[in-house]
Write a structure and sequence with these properties.
alpha/beta, Dihydrofolate Reductase, subunit A, 8-stranded mixed beta sheet, two-stranded antiparallel sheet, 5 helices, globular, RibDG_C, DHFR-like_dom_sf
């Protein structure tokens, strides 16, 4: 069965964005882009909440065409165009969307159907609201976190309204030159 892995930049104190959705504190560089690019290039399905999807859709389809496009822009744009996209949203409609499906109801059933299909792990990018919904329904199988060396003090937390303890097993960790630390966890389902 396919797994849903939440891919998220996070502050040391557990926030994924500032109080108004700010992400200007996130550190990224070529080392991180290359590392992440290798891993996601193997993925065939990206899962987003509506806000993150719209942000991605406004940038990535044409990112490679810009005169100052970086290696990362070109590679990620190519991947984004071919990857299957699934969006959790109660307001979006999927009419006319290319390679994109919308889940607006029966979240658990619809996600479990996707997990049963052949393919690679499903990467959940950002999307704190969608992530909170998936956590509540025990649908996330792992967390691929990039801990940034910053304490925000307030903002949008990764983990909110957790009802039951979630036990995790650490698979890998990596320190990047810019100070970001990768933590790769899977759920301990025992």
């Amino acid at each position: 069965m396919r797994k849903i892995i939440s891919f998220m930049h996070i502050s040391l104190d557990g926030f994924v964005a500032g109080p108004n959705g700010e992400m200007d504190w996130i550190k990224v560089d070529e080392e991180i882009f290359d590392y992440v690019g290798k891993r996601i290039s193997e993925g065939d399905t990206a899962l987003y909440g509506r806000v993150t999807y719209q942000m991605m859709e406004n940038y990535w389809p044409t990112a490679a065409d810009k005169p100052a496009a970086t290696k990362h822009d070109i590679e990620h744009s190519k991947w984004y165009k071919k990857v299957r996209k699934v969006v959790v949203s109660k307001t979006m409609k999927d009419a006319g969307l290319t390679n994109t499906n919308i889940i607006s109801d029966n979240l658990s059933d619809r996600i479990n159907e996707i997990k049963q299909q052949a393919g690679e792990d499903i990467l959940l990018f950002g999307s704190p609201t969608a992530t909170h919904s998936l956590i509540q329904q025990n649908l996330i199988d792992g967390y691929w976190l990039f801990v940034n060396p910053v304490i925000l003090g307030r903002g949008i937390p990764l983990f909110a309204d957790i009802k039951d303890k979630i036990k995790l097993n650490l698979l890998t960790t990596r320190q990047f030159t810019c100070g970001v630390t990768e933590l790769n966890y899977v759920l301990d389902r025992q």
